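Hey, I was hoping to borrow your eyes for a little while. I'm sending you its amino acid sequence along with the backbone structure tokens. Take your time with it, there's no hurry, and the full record follows here.
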Amino acid sequence: MLLLLISVLFVAIVNGLQEAVIFTFEIPQKRDGRFVYDLITSSPPLDVNSRYAYFLLCDHFASSSIICREASDDEKVIGFVGGYRKPTDPETLFVWQIAVDEKHRGKGLPAMMLDKMLQVHNPVTITSIEATYTPSNKASYHFFTKYAKAKQALANIDDYLSADDFGSSTGHEEEKLIKIFLTPMPTTMKNKEK
């Protein structure tokens, strides 16, 4: 079952010419796993998992994931947010990966996808978002902190995994955990930030 959430018209001026693109946002289907895998492999510094993992994510966790396509191409996935509700806290959405095709970066697609994902009907409301990022992935850090600010939400950052947790031979960086509380900040906190 394909659920088309919304189509969005994006208009930009490129080299003096007006360019219009219509994006569609959909709940992924199992078949989309291969397209998501292709997108992730072309989106460093994201960790690439097996194709099988992306098939499972698009099938078993479809209701907490979203894909974006250009309306003119119903095959290629140009944006993806993959996540799941935490089993111990179903009101928290853990965002596992966000990726946007290089050609479409800078158009606000990650925030649009996350917003559309939060609108998917589910009996349990999402009250917070969690994600991890490595310190070298500045784009993830900036996206999540900017998203929290746009939602007037409190964001908290903690250590999650150390480099040693991954094992010394992996060379994997530490992972930080950001949690965004999707309730507006109290007025007193807003004033303190200024």
